[in-house]
């Protein structure tokens, strides 16, 4: 794996052609999880993926599409147009560098709009294969395997994962709030959950979080490797 801690000539001499880009978010996560939760959870998944692919791990972007949480102080959101421009500039930069595959990874549902941006970018840069890691499907499988409810927002799942990763950042005063049917209502979330959680973070434990991590890391690696498989000639697009 390569990263921004390498020099440019080390990247060039390596011949690496795959880049992994973690896209985070800076948004409220209830009363006991930090604003950086989605970024902190995305990075180790991106690291594991980059390690498996022998890829260049691009530094994480800490902002995403978080319009629904702007009523909570500290939240920073990019507009759809800005996010589209940023993703486009990242792809353009890596294409000029000579990378032929770019994988975007995010655990924040608001960033799923990135998936719709990649088709036009592949047309603009036909030499580059673009993938958005499908975290919704992977999270569903991993939480089921770990025996923890599927993640909604600032809930048992996310709090447990962060306890296993950065326990020192998890506060002692969680606020439970049952997730409404169909998920949280974007745009008026604070009316439904004044304290910001949509689930039961009080039930989180480090052990539950470790079970989720043990399940989700190999799953996301396998999911992306499967997407990189070239069915036309029956050969993998990675080494």
Question: What is the overall shape?
Answer: globular
Radius of gyration: 18 Å
Number of beta strands: 7
**Quick one: CATH superfamily?**
Creatininase
What strand line-up does the widest sheet have? Answer: 1-3-2-4-5
The first-level CATH class name: Alpha Beta
- The amount of beta strand, in percent, is 5-15%
Mean pLDDT: 91
The N- and C-terminal alpha carbons lie at a distance of 13 Å
Largest sheet report: 5 strands, parallel
Number of helices: 8
- What would you say the CATH architecture is? 3-Layer(aba) Sandwich
Number of spatially distinct domains:
1
Low-confidence stretches: 231-239
Helix/strand structural class: alpha/beta
Short key terms for the protein model shown above:
239 residues, alpha/beta, Rossmann fold, 5-stranded parallel sheet, two-stranded antiparallel ribbon, 7 strands, 43% helix, 9% strand, globular
